Amino acid sequence: MKTSVAVVGASGKIGSLVCRLIQESDDFELVAQLGSQSDLSEILAADFVVDVSLPSVSKSVLEFAVENGKHIMIGTSGWSSERIEKQRAFIESHPDVNVVFISNFSLGAALSTHLATVAAKHFDSIEIIETHGVHKVDSPSGTAVSTAEAIAGVRDNDIQAPHADQRARGQLVSGVPVHSLRMEGVVAKQDVIFGGVGETVTVTHTTFSNRSYEAGIMAALRALRTHKGLTVGLDQVISL
Fold first, then answer.
1. Which tens digits make up the pLDDT trace of 137-182?
2. How crowded is residue 26: how many other Cβ atoms within 10 Å of its Cβ?
3. Is 163 one of the annotated active-site residues of the chain?
4. Could you give the CA distance from residue 49 to residue 146 in angstroms, rounded to a whole number?
5. pLDDT category, 230, cuts 50, 70, 90?
6. Which residue from 47, 121, 222, 230 puts its CA 20 to 30 A from 18's CA?
7. What is the rounded average pLDDT for all residues in the chain?
8. In CATH, what class is 107-209?
9. 136 is catalytic
């Protein structure tokens, strides 16, 4: 028996991809595709909800789904660890509902963030440059925020960020300067640069096609069946 799924933000690039993958799968069934004019009550027809909408509406989608007992996977940008923590008590008050937050569905992005946390233990000077296409509405990207937070978690926030008060130095995320580029001809790229005495190390991940998200999308969707409560990050889904 297939699991029914509703997709919020179905008309966007990632939403369209999610819808196609569900329709092509053997274990899921697409029963609702919600756009900007849709009523959230349409998700009540589904077992699972996928939210790939906009940062401004994602919170309301989460709350509606959880309050109505729907497992939900959230791939919308803008969910920092601080913002997720503010929802933890609400999510835990509904113990029968599973919630998975994914800032980036790329397996390579998850691996590069993991590698960045390994390198971060050995370098004091760390900065991130993230590049996306001109239509991405938020900055820094959710992936850059997650990477900076993961780095801070292994560094105890003792990262060198000289002249951080200068506007050109980028936005500080958990003490890490993050520089956002929005350019034509780009899907996504992130460089995490580590500086040491006489050397630098760069962990780079480049996305050339949205097809790189396919395996992560399906892994995260299936995780709604087995990961109880709150799960944050594709790294937790694929057990990095």
1. 889 999 999 999 999 999 987 999 999 999 999 999 999 999 999 9
2. 5
3. no
4. 22
5. very high
6. 230
7. 96
8. alpha beta
9. yes
